[in-house]
Task: structure prediction
Amino acid sequence: MITSLLELEELANCKRCDEESVIEELRVCIGSSCLSRGADEIEKDLKTAIEDKGLQTRCRVKGVGCSGLCANGTLVLHYKNATKENILYEDITLDDVDALAISIEQEKPYSLKVCDTNQPFFTKQTKIVLENAGIIDPNDIEDYIAHGGYATLFHVLHEMMPVDVINEVKISGLRGRGGGGFPTGQKWESVYKVQSDQKYIVCNGDEGDPGAFMDRALMEADPHKVLEGIIIAGFACGATKGYIYVRAEYPIAVEKLNHAIKQARKLGILGNQIAHSGFDFDIEVRLGGGAFVCGEATALIASIEGNRGNPRQKPPHLSDYGLWGEPTVLNNVETLANIPSILKNGGEWFKNIGTPTSTGTKIFALTGHIKNTGLVEVPMGITLRELIYEIGGGTSDGKALKAIQTGGPSGGCIPTQFLDLTIDYDSLKSVGTIMGSGGMIVIDESSNMVELAHFFMDFCKSESCGKCVPCRVGTTQLTHLLEKFIAKEATQADFELLKELSSVVKGTSLCGLGQTAPNPVLSTIRYFESEYLEGIKND
Amino acid sequence: MADMVDNRYKIVDQAMKKLGYEKSALLEVLHVAQETFGYLDKDALKFIAKRLKAPYSKVYGVATFYHRFTLKPQGKHTVVVCLGTACYIKGSKEILKALENRFAIKVSQTTNDNLVSLLSARCVGSCSIAPVMVCDNKTYGKLTLENTLEQMEEMLS
Result:
């Protein structure tokens, strides 16, 4: 049990001493993408190879979370304690294990597979939320503590009042990272002000947008950071219980979170009287069931309560009537993972990163026809051109870039004329898309935009919960209409109907799913109308 | 056989007990039941309804709402093709079609010999190595038509 900041620091120092006793570390990325290339076996073999050479007292092999450059996995980072020097190796396979072990023995870099970390992919990133990803062992709470973890929580519990915490978050200007962009401090304040014996914090880890895996990587790489954010949110709002709702498709994230919760409870960082401060808080993980609509706030709450994930009319808002009818804060994983850094460095510090209305950084999952697929964290206000061409390395097959899709099925496509647009909540909105949760899909000229719109509409059709008519019937009709365009059998009247129906579904649906489902259609009509016109048959 | 069946019900019952037979435990219990039985049949759903003191219609309603739950037995191997956006624009539709042809079944079906169930997913979160499929819980990325079919032969051999 740790009861004070002093004890926490002692533990951190102890762990650090222990770490310094080994001279170097080989950090094998066991993020989802590297894992599917056999990173777990590489880690195991590397451990054996190091032990066979008797180097285990000098060099430790450990599995770490996503290191970012998924395109070139499996990644292995060689860290030297004395010089704080890093060498990143890319494209490591089982065949490289022996050579890598020999290079450690001979203290020479394994030059064949060295990855250049001076390229913009690395230098243009600003890591706040992902600061520990790829560095710490997600299974080891002590590793997190040694890297400064939970110190902010202890500071908050001992030195701050809930109002101070909320104020700091308000100053920071942090906005919801799930896509909506609602100011987090304001959300907390409204729950704080409600009088109630029981309040809840719910962390939304139901990352449903296809093409997005930021929250997955975060939960797998640094689960304790998410926990720390939730506990601080609980303290600020007066809640005593938190839930993390995670997609069932992310079994590794669930395992890591559950393990982290167990460790935190053991050290008294979760449970009764955290750090002897009189504050009680506990967290439970709840599994989703693979329904996209459960990313919607009221549907998610219904799902945690064990019901079908049907959304309901708002108001009442969750701040008044949330989980089991009690005031509830619902925040995205990335939002909550920002909290420890904000309270550690202050709201002003955070405010100075990014743009005045969109502060801080944002994690993006770069996927699609792009060279450097992977996970990046960049300051808000960076341009699309920098993100796609410098960090992303341009399109993968050298084909011309056609559009960038953000916001998943609720977002839209940005054509190339807006490449110099800065990435923030408001600019993206002005061109007809949304920030979304961070999936950024790069589309080259080989893709047809009507087919892409159909793909998203078909997605919304099958994910519609069926409660309200505009969404249930509208998405089906829109899918049929788009099929006509793909078959090149549409009429001019169909085109008008497509536009009209889109605006009806958008304006009259009950929840966010239906209200945003026509966005991909409207956005592609706006910028790629000619492709729709090609689908109209000539009479 | 009978013992084994009883034992499986016991596992499900223990999961409910752990959660205090609360109605809110339904989703969790369904996950446990599916993991234990492989799928959710009527008897299992009725058993859960009875123990949680919830109407069968409610349990059935929840089990059919979420894509994760299946009311049909699955084949020995499951092949899940990801149809998320990143996989989609990198040709996962063709891969799915090739697999449908290979096993002569449609997506969401199981082969007659109960060997393979072919499923699709809305995104498995491995977008950086798209297109992706998950065979018996192992993820395979950067698929092409050739290496997909090769992988299938390897899985079946």
